Amino acid sequence: MGRVPNVTRADLAQAARNPLAFIAGRWTPAQRTVRRAAFISLAMTVVIVVTGGAVRLTGSGLGCPTWPKCTEDSLTATSEMGFHGYIEFGNRVLTYVLCAAVGWAIIAARSQKPMRRSLTRLGWAQFWLVMGNAVLGGIVVLVGLNPYTVAAHFLLSSALIAVAAVMWQRSREGDGEPRPLVGRAVAQLVWCLVAVSVLLIAVGTVVTGAGPHAGDSSDVPRMDLAPVGLDWEGVTKLHAVLAWIVVTLTFALWFVLKAVDAPRGPLARTRDLFLILLAQGAIGYVQYFTELPEVLVGLHMFGSCLVWIAVLRVLLSLRERPLPTAGVPVQADESRLSAV
Description:
Blueprint: H1 9-17, H2 19-24, H3 31-57, H4 82-111, H5 117-142, H6 147-170, E1 179-180, H7 184-210, H8 232-259, H9 264-289, H10 294-316, E2 319-320
Antiparallel strand pairs: 1-2
Helix pairs in contact: 3-4, 3-6, 3-10, 4-5, 5-6, 6-7, 6-10, 7-8, 7-10, 8-9, 9-10
């Protein structure tokens, strides 16, 4: 164990002015540590989405009827509030765990040598998205689980997942100019896949907002689809059609990549997406024909996160940014995008 350096009064003043720079000056994390920190941040983002779904599916959305406190007189849930209060407050507590995970990712990225500003910025983008979504979550409670605010809450979580997934991938790469691994036509097909996936997620929030799981046992309003000529059955079928379009595009992409003899990275990521889509589609149809049991709806929300991450990984696999060889351990070569 190395000698612990003495901390002077000047060091303490520097730490107060810029704690991240103070830590970075005394600690250099391994490349593997930075990657793990980014992955933990992504994993916690998925966890907070799934537990948020559990709050809604158990009817605990108003278990803590106010915000930021749980009640007017208590910051935490009380025994009088029962099961729903503990569920809602537990999800709020997990927000602090997510903040800690994002903070750890920022510190690890900032302390890396040489410092990678692009990676640090992605970490801070996650932080501000978490803060924004926490405030939006409070608004959701204060407006009595208005379905439009609930939908916005999930969409902002999807944006957070996107940034976390990009940071995780970028932590495995260098900062050089990206080198394309496929042609422009293939890239355009993938961007089309991403666009339809975004639309699929957005329509999924409408299905949820108009569906039976309102998030609380009280009379919570649902989305009114009559002005656009749809009902819940209609928007559910639209969601299914979009899902099939995503599946078809993924299948077509796999064949195109095989035809052009693409590198292993894009092929593997496309295969992973296709398998996740098949599992997600099976869950979706089973939950539809079994009248939306809570467990299957929760699994479908988890699957939605995995689908979105898989789509982004396909997009990011179309290029590579090799790590620099000078001053980098040999094992860092394993972080090439094509070997992810």
